[in-house]
Design a protein that fits this description.
globular, 2,3-Dihydroxybiphenyl 1,2-Dioxygenase, domain 1, alpha+beta, 8-stranded mixed sheet, 202 residues
Length: 202
Amino acid sequence: MNLSSLKVLNPIVSLDELKKYEDVIGDEDIDSLILKVDHISLGTKSINLLRKLYSDFLYIGGSVLEDVHRWPAEQKDTPIEFHKNMFSLELNDFFVVGVSPGSKNDQIDKFMNGEETTKIHHIAFLVRNFNLAIEMFKDQLDFRCLDCAKPNQGDIRQVFLIHENRNILVEIVWRSDVNSKNLIHKNIVTLSSSLEAYKNVS
């Protein structure tokens, strides 16, 4: 899988970090299923670093989809460990989702582990066939599906898969409208829940 479209992120994101994904997902059969990178999610340690990351992407030509905000807007029905600060910007033919912790010891705070650098949380791939892509990532690339049984919402289907040996998280995305940049609240909660369940048993 050629991730050359993401090189525009350098030096904001280390090319070595991108290469880890490219090395694992370098399979021609997988290429035939992947339409493109849908989005990349980047983590920062704090809201201030998130705002700086947002400014950096504006400087290199990012187009705002959502500026820095607290997610979710209605917080009472979403577990506190899933809360976060986030933004999204379109950049070339993919979009960037930046996140920072919403509170101490939440999911993003644990992921950042006190590190000051911007870290890749996951890369999401837009695919032609959702179920077939999942099977190929599992069977050919040794990824583990975190919760393939959960239903997905509406015109977008999403699931996390992890490569445990390389500690790489990917998201498989299918959209009825391949040009859409929408992220659905219920799907974000489902993805977060699958990651939390995995970490609790691993």
